[in-house]
Amino acid sequence: MAASYTWDVFSTLDGYGSYGPDGDWGGYWSKQGPELLQHRASLFDTPQRMVFGATTFRENADILLRSGDPHNQDEWNRRTLMMPATVISSTLHDTLGWPDATVASGDAGEIVARLKEESDVPLRSQASLSLNRSLMAAGLVDRIELTIFPVISGRTGTSPVLAGAGDFDLELLESRTFDGRSQLLVYRPSAHG
Description:
This protein is an alpha/beta fold. 26% of the residues lie in helices and 32% in strands. The chain is built from five helices and ten strands; from the N terminus they run ββαβααββαβαββββ. Strand 9 (168-178) and strand 10 form a beta hairpin. The longest helix has 13 residues, at 54-66.
């Protein structure tokens, strides 16, 4: 049986995955709380393989391995760093010190389809926006776990999460509110039309 593939992504209410230098929101848009952090840590209680695009991998490696960012000490970030990872990139040739990472070059759809067939653990991808939009178009994303933070960042927001995505029907599998403010929505996507 093929391994499941989950796209795990954070967003503002207006659909941005990050913010520019003129925005001073802080990590998690300053909306993290104990319920959210406990849930995030629980996602990594069981073995899984992380899948990253090059940009997100570089950003994560910088935060988790080299920066003084206090969020790199959150339990879920420590657990993420201990998971095996596949980085899909034609430009990156180094694992940047990530303990159990490999770089795979080639067609992302073919690489993920092969991983899904060969992996004995679920696959999870954090952010990696353009990679996961292309994998959705190829029908390879089984679940989208979207955590919406209660902010609107119309002036400072960057990285629109779904910009350029195709049309998809979404089946809601789960929803949950953390700390009275952040919302988790878990969907199963299917191509529309």
